Amino acid sequence: MTRVIKLSKGLDINLAGKAEPKKVNLSAGNVFALNPADFEGVKPKVVVKEGDKVKAGDALFVNKDFPQVKFASPVSGTVKLVERGDRRKLLSVQVEADAQQEFVDFGKKDVKSLDAEAVKNALLDAGLFGYINQLPYAISTNPETAPKAIFVSAFRDMPLAGDFSFELKGQEADFQTGLSALAKIAKVYVGVNESMSLSDVEVVEFRGKCPAGNVGVQVNNIDPVNKGEIVWTVEPSAVIFFGRLFNTGKVNLTRTVAVAGSEMKENGYVDALVGQQLTVNVDANARVIMGNPLTGKAVATTQQASAVAVTLGAHSSEIIAIPEGNNADEILGWIMPRFGQFSVNRSYFSWLFGKKQYKLDARVKGGERHMIMSGEYDSVLPMDIYAEYLIKAIITGDIDKQEQLGIYEVSPEDFALAEFVDSSKLELQRIVREGLDVLRKENE
Fold it and tell me: Which of 32, 139, 212, 295 could bridge 275 with an S-S bond, Cβ 3.0-4.6 Å?
């Protein structure tokens, strides 16, 4: 029987422009860029040079601290550019794809006959192990860690997030194979929001508002992380990557991505490879975001209606376009009794109209100020931690208090909604990320 966990805290933000359950075609470029910044905590070392020929599955760079952790090229072709920034920081490795694709053959494998070490080695050889993250620290993990459990969240509930059940269609066998492979390493928990029949794992159904789909929230409510413990977290798309590897013997980094937002000309889903350059058509004065509006990264701001080229990130499930808000002209600001704007505290009368869709723009609407201890964070964070006190401990650099208040259990995305409702306008995700980085260095 599926275990059910009900969460009372959270907040659903119903934005206009959700992706329609259909496939759309986008113009795609021939150059693919793998960005090390997509893999938090990895110190990249390039193992190719410009002009080299690579196959899909060949390593482009490795983790300097753990050279056995490779990062595979999504396509076969010629290394066009090793892009570096300040202090020679590696920004991306770009590959110009061949017309006829070639793949490294890693050999099909029967997962049932493999042990934990064989599964790890297969993922390491194919350059896919780096897609596994860990708590604490919310970073890409390494093969020397021994997880007490592995968590996969098989649904997404952030604003304008893609529907994983739509992505899963036709790929059920690969998803199951990927889960069975992970189950050889440690117990696997799969968080769902509706009934799903899976084997070799424990399925846990979550009922509640966003962020019930956050894997960190699920870890906290199933098997919290204590000091000295490690759990692995894997995106469901990466589980499909793993399953394809075992079922076909090849690296296939194709993922189904939601194209959504009120300023997008056409909404739907597109199949694309990690690192692929896609061109989306958006309205004037739009902010284009790789990822969902709360945790994603802004990639462009348009001044007029135009086509915008974006490179699909390794962990991105959405490409979003929302209003920038730089042309807004609101008489009397927040004082007016507005009917079409969203308010967490029902400051506007729009809440009277039920489940209304909103066209929120990218404005912060206020400046940073002293932190207000009002319980705002706790109202939208369904985790057994004192969120406001944890943020204060991070800001003041009190490591002992951070540990006592549960920093090992959190990741930056867990504070995305708290950042949205924060009256103090603090960049909570950045603060948490910096706190985790400092803590990791202290414990090395």
Answer: 32
